[in-house]
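Support request, please re-run this one:
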Amino acid sequence: MGYTWKWKHIVCYFYFSVVLLTNGSVDNQRTAEELKNDVKQNKYVLVLFVNGNKESTKAANTAFTQISTPDLYDQDILKVRCVDQTLATSLGVRSYPQLVFYRSQVPALYDGDFTTPSIQPWLEQAREVTLQTLDDTSFEHLTQASTGATTGDWLVIFYRESCQEQLPALEGAGVLIKQKTNVAKVKIDDSPETVKRFQIRTCPTTYLFRHSKMYAYISQTSSDVYRVKSLVSFATSWYKNAKGVNVPSIPTAFDKLTEFIADSLKENFDVQIPKGGNLMLKGGAVLAVIAFIVTIVTTMCSRNATKRAKED
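Re-run finished. Output below.
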């Protein structure tokens, strides 16, 4: 009886040892919902996403268990594993194993060698969130995009909630280039003036703003689009292969007025005149609008001339 009891304990010990070696800690695997709660309750959460490949999972777990919280952190890093591929895909994960590091609920993709000596220095760099949020009120003030002034280069993504899986990759790139380049995001639906200024038509769209010019993001290969290494390469050197165009200036009130009138005219011309419609009346309305524009321009020029005369 005693012999049988000892034998069962030996078998159980051997079984759990194998589990730990192949799958990592048995008490740190999370569902998608559990992970979301962890992220809300902890400042730092390091997630290891794995799939069914046992060999790569085993190697990843070996490195993962050896990772420690860097000295400069004010809280310990919570380390968890997750196999939910739907959640992984929503974070831009394309291959496994993959590390995603949450700091204050903002995820960053790790794109480096899967060894502890490589991961540990990256964690020291990734302590703070790099991705800034811009909108109509702050874009030009912070980036100084049209003047190319003192705030440096900016890698900016325009996105919607329906196309935001690239944000973790941009945050991961920001960790590596933060000494030379700022990274930021602009939510399309919340910044209509900025979106119109830069003629954003697809989601996501990313530009590098550098020395009063803007470069549309391109990757070296189609498979590298919105990967961390591709974004880093573009921001540091590959942008030279894209066509740089002058950054559009901020529209003045008069620009907005004339654009509004031009849009109204275009809309009127696009409208099909119904049979029997009063063509002369419609033409008169168009001429009235044109006369209104001429009057405004003439008035402004007259005021400017009077002002200059007084100053002289």
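DSSP finds eleven helices and eleven strands in the chain. Confidence is low (pLDDT under 50) at residues 8-26.
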